[in-house]
């Protein structure tokens, strides 16, 4: 092991080549190249194989990271992929979009010791993309087919992860989604420069070849009632995600040209997929030639500012009420945005929106913020500085303030479905059951807007709960 590993002292941390900012800001292609095999092997050899693997501890999926880093360092990529895929349904996606700087890489022992983290995400991406190229990734082939079926509401990461796990056990799986493509936010919420849509389409083909059925353009509660879905299937999983945008109550917030982040990103992604998007053609959701202001500090805000740059905006500013150190988004994404020409206006918050004579936004009036005493969560409380107001020209304002759950009992026409005060679905965390027998829930609709990796974890946990429920039901039927 000493021959192949523990080289963090003699080998410096390195990322795959990143396209130059002037080049990448003109298109939506992914910005990082893949590691060449020898560089992936060299970077994996930096792993210290520590006794307590904090990278694994801080991964929501508890991926066996030291194990597949060791195998990669030894050139055993097929085995590395098998170890990676054993805990992660979509390693090729997590390797691209997980905020590794906040999770595995940020907690790497050699990072804490000052030697620079192992580039876990880039190696994970390399291992999985190589596995696809070499034909090592194969459709699920259950050892035996079961008659019991599961209906899953939502074709996002939680629903797909649950569907794959259940299909592996031999259950018949049908996934319903109100949109026209598989992937949820992976398709319509995350831009191509972070996740090429062909990566999602490749995984969709694999799931279809595994025997999972999809019914797209079907909205539960509108086209099919939840009761009808329960009658069709032996168990149902709700994995709808959260799509309702948080709003901003400020004078002038109803002006034309002020839009929610997801509406803006969905239009841009549809345009990239080749759809005819009227709002792009008309310029309503096209930043070309415009002064753009994005409000928010999370990863969605970073997606919006970097999309606006690529659409040819005249200027792009990100308005955030806290400082850089307190941003909830990935610091790596902030750096990429700055390189591409985004200007960050720290410790500032919108106070009003100014419009012109036809009701179109023309400026954002913002106020400077002082960060005061820490609140109950440990974060400093933002306080407006009196007399600090200033105006920023704005032809397009994007509100990236986060997402909230829709009124699911009303939308699904299921009054027996209990929700929390935050409007998330109430579950028993031991098995992810809801208050309706045979109905389970997973992902953002349970925990609130969160990371894709958490959705995958919840989907797999829900599949385990569903399997236990179906097995118990089968046992009872057999005993009668």
Description:
It is a single chain. The protein is of the alpha/beta class. It has 3 domains: 21-134, Fumarate Reductase Iron-sulfur Protein, Chain B, domain 2, CATH 1.10.1060.10; 149-242 and 405-479, FAD/NAD(P)-binding domain (3-Layer(bba) Sandwich), CATH 3.50.50; 256-401, FAD/NAD(P)-binding domain (3-Layer(bba) Sandwich), CATH 3.50.50. It has 19 helices and 16 strands. Helix 4 packs antiparallel against helix 5, helix 9 (157-168) runs parallel beside helix 19 (452-479) and helix 13 (261-272) packs across helix 15 (299-310). It is globular, with a radius of gyration of 23 Å.
Largest sheet: 5 strands, parallel
- Per the CATH scheme, the topology name of the largest domain is FAD/NAD(P)-binding domain
CATH architecture of the largest domain: 3-Layer(bba) Sandwich
- Counting copies of identical and different chains, the oligomeric state is single chain
> By CATH's scheme, which homologous superfamily of the largest domain applies?
FAD/NAD(P)-binding domain
Termini separation (Å)?
A: 57 Å
By secondary-structure content and strand pairing, the structural class works out as alpha/beta
Arrangement of strands in the largest sheet: 3-2-1-4-16
What percent of residues adopt helix (DSSP H or I)? 25-40%
- Please tally the β strands and state the result: 16
How many distinct domains? Answer: 3
Number of separate helices:
19
In terms of DSSP E residues, the strand content is 15-25%
What CATH first level of the largest domain would be assigned? Alpha Beta
Q: Specify the overall morphology.
A: globular
Q: What value does the average pLDDT take?
A: 95
Supply Rg: 23 Å
